[in-house]
Amino acid sequence: MSWGTELWDQFDNLEKHTQWGIDFVEKYTKFVKERSEIELNYARQIRNLSKKYQPKKKEEDDNKYTWCRAFHSTLNELNDYAGQHELIAENMTSQIIAELMRYAQEIKTERKAHFHDGRKAQQQVEASWKQLESCKRKFERDCKEADRAQQYFEKLDADINVTKADVEKARQQAQMRHQMASDSKNEYSSCLQKFNQEQNEHYYTIIPNIFQKIQAMEEKRIERMGESLKTFAEVDRQILPIIGKCLDGITQVAESIEPKNDSSQVIESYKSGFEPPGDVEFEDYGQAMKRTVSETSLTNSRSDNKADRSSKGKSKTLWPFIKKNKGSNPEDFSHLPPEQRRKKLQAKIDDINKDIQKEMDQRDALTKMKEVYVKNPQMGDPNSVDPRLAEIAHNIEKLQAEAQKFEGWLAEVEGRMPVKSDPLKRTSVLYETQNSTPPTNNNCAQDRESPDGSYTEEPSSEVQSKVQPETAESGDEFDDADEEMLPTIGTCKALYPFEGANEGTISVVEGELLYVIEEDKGDGWTRIRRNEEEEGYVPTSYVEVFLDSNAKDVFSWRRVFLSEDS
């Protein structure tokens, strides 16, 4: 099908389409240029890597071992391997980039000439049309003037009061106007015939010829694109045999390693040649040896006692927390309020699912490629796809496990999101907080971080008057019954429910009032107490703290005292 006959009225669209084709050629040229730059950078990095691990002068003696020689040979082969990637970049630059840049300039010039001829032909038709319109208007005007002159003559001729001279003059004027109208008619007819001839030639000869040339130019451009794509593949295919030789060389030097020979070389390198020493003769001094306790045994005994004391001391530790790195956020976003945490976890799950989908798409594509290789062995080895498929399967497994982990955290958060409900009414803060039943879910979650620092109870002479006497028996849960609790420094109100699933944390319900016994040290956790048996850490953002006026001074003094004592 021809553009000249089918697209005779699509001059502007053809102009846009051919310009888009040229832009595509330039875009593809830029793509190949960036690909060649990637090959050059990769080759440069491989060369730098090979150079970095080349043996130094002091390591030249290592060549006596076959495994060292194999590694050095591998570095040399890797250097040649980098050279082949440089060759890819060089061939792409000379065979594709340079050719396409030159061709782009040629096609731009050709396209400009074709559309210039088309515009010129269009202007000629438009000029002929304007001339036809002018002749037509002149003919119409002269006809109207002739009619008026004829009517004026007939009016005077019928009037008996008009002189014969005036009637003759009107008759001559009417004849002159009729003659002008006749001349205009002939001129209009001539212009119309000329325009129709030019228009017919324009749409059936000139424009088809121009569009035919543009069509040939576009088909040639498409053909050149196909040739460039083929060259793009051939440039890679040409170096495959040499790269295969480099890899074969690495395989050969790997197979040349001789463990027995290398182990024998160690003997040759470090053998001293001396005979082993003989037996030591007995020397009798006639005195019995007195057994004494060595310093080593005493040291060991002391260290054992110290270890026992250390183990006892550890048994007093209530919360063996893991120290957190300041400034880093936990993986499960537990430092955030529930709603923000849920959003973060959901976004993380979505990202992981996207990564899983990408891996699955790659797996499907490789599977199809392997099927093609099985049906057409000349296109490639089907087994060459298996390592990549195994790697993708491992990646999918890993991502699915990670997604399952985050989904567990998300389910945990959605199960404990704050619910709008009436707060619990407490008539006596002290009594009800000491006798409230702790939440049942207080198990340690393996994937959660604990707050900063650990606490070992310190002996104190002060006894808190607010503590109920019935809780004195709770000290039997620990090894040291003489230890006393830290004093309270204020109170707090729970803004959100917190399950306290980690060891060292405590569960709270929304609206609950509790005692504060340790301020936030900057790690996002506050230590609180419900009664003598229940105390632990909660996120600072989950509670509203009300410190006593003198508690801050006492707490700061105590921290200084403990640091100096340690």
From TrEMBL:
Region (Disordered): 294-341, 432-480
Keyword line: Cell membrane, Coiled coil, Cytoplasm, Cytoskeleton, Endocytosis, Lipid-binding, Membrane, SH3 domain
Top-rank taxon: Eukaryota
Residues covered by the F-BAR domain: 1-262
Domain (REM-1) ranges: 335-412
Matches recorded under PROSITE patterns: F_BAR (PS51741), REM_1 (PS51860), SH3 (PS50002)
Any GO MF annotation of the entry: lipid binding
Family of this protein: Belongs to the FNBP1 family.
Protein known as: Formin-binding protein 1-like
Organism this protein belongs to: Sinocyclocheilus anshuiensis
Gene of this entry: LOC107675683
